[in-house]
Design a protein that fits this description.
574 residues, alpha/beta, 21 helices
Length: 574
Amino acid sequence: MNREVGPASLADAPGRELAAVAYRGDWDAFEVLEALGGGDAALWIWEPGRDRLRVAGAARSLGLGPLGDEATSAVVTALTQPQDLALLEDLLRIREAGAEVHARLRMRGGPTLVWRGAWLDDGRAAGAVAAEARFGPGDVDRLTGLLDRPGFLARARAALQSPEVFELVAADLNRLRRLNEALGHERADLVLAALGARLAAAFPPEFLPARIGEDEFAIFVPRAVGGSGAVETLRTALEQPLRIAGFDIFPTLTVGAVEARGGPDAPEAAELLRRAELSVEATRNAAPGAAGPSAYGKALEMDSLSRLALEADLRLAITRGELQAYYQPVVRLETGRVAGFEALVRWKHPKRGLIPPDEFLPLAQEMGLMIEVGRQMLTQASGQLAAWRGRHPSAGALWVSVNLSPGEIERVGLVEEVAELARRHALPSGALKLEITESDIMRDPDAAAEVLHRLRAAGAGLALDDFGTGFSSLSYLTRLPFHTLKIDRYFVMTMLSNEGSTKIVRSVTSLGRDLDMEVVAEGVENAAMAEALLKLGCDYGQGFGYSPALEPTGAEVYLHESLLDGKAPIRTRS
């Protein structure tokens, strides 16, 4: 066994150091103990062929004195607490060379001990043993005092040697990023510490309460002891209000669970945790109001593999030009004529066909690809608009709007890119519109105002998207250079049956008129909606009542036919 080993540190890799020394044949236990600086540790070597365990060092202070210089497995068994006998059997079980040993055992009349080491080429195992406190900091999350991820996995792995049924419950704290932004990292850490204390109080230590990630907690419960109620116990403990630095915090969790039977055929602990985390993600993606956590199943594996394949395909799609702009008509309500289009991204997958945006845009956001998606939409839309304006002069001041993705307003070079596209395609001022959401503006209104003024100076039209769903300050709205307000589709689609929605549409329309802005209503489903919007003074309508988003050729056909007929067709009823 000629592997290189790490530094001689008991906390890092004592088993590897000891194994190397033992295999070389120069086994001097006291010399090694001195080198490791271990006055509170002992060294052990297990020889299963001789049924002999040898311990040297601080054996007496660790409660291992009764073992003497040599002991059989029967003596060690007699010294071990009955509930840990399965863990002892795993420690003594013969394994292949190079396999690591990590066991946590409670000894009769002594402290809990951690045994670490490795199996040698000659069929022996060797390592170091110390009180749990000596090893503890390496297994404990400093913020919460719970087990950390490696410590949790090590102890769950040991527990799975017992032929019981276990449930591993994983839980993600929702909106940690928002807490960090609102409170600062130090105060958000207080929230995590408080949740850790609650989890530790709700479950006994043998259930292995742990913090397994920045905002992730876990518990490992024997079903016979109370696993069936573990999810509810966890929720009850953690989803209680907190008051941190004068702020009332209401934590919520996304929970997943997986069940497994221990014993010789038990799954690896890391695999079990992966399954639990898959079920957390499935719970997060489930329909709102779904009862309870998602349980692991083969369908989750298929979903995960499908997502992995989709990630790889999405990167290639951007380079291959598979993302295409589709165009939804926007109609002037007073005349019924097509005034412009909104460019909406679609993915034409070579094998799966047209993939809806709600399937791949969140993925693109997670993968950091939205900036490139936005670039491609701007480039395609500006070129398409120039071509349409050249071929259809009777369409008048035709425009196309493009959505800026979250955070794109802060992108370096955005203003220059828009100015270059307008120059290259000879687009008049306002023909290429950019749609920005309220949340993007309100994240930093002053910085956003500066960028918006520069974009307007570069010739871009500006539309505030989904107006009425956010928390905009009207004082900021008066300072921002928007041309257009877009009313969220929810209010438009419910205005004929909901008086409150009608009032909101009327108010936004009046506000737009007072601020010299045009107003676009999304979600127009039929002629009755269009007529009601016109009566309220709304300028433009957009929605499936006119047309869904169309590929460029279809959009041009729609534009041409609308010009010939004098107005865009609209459904009389939904």
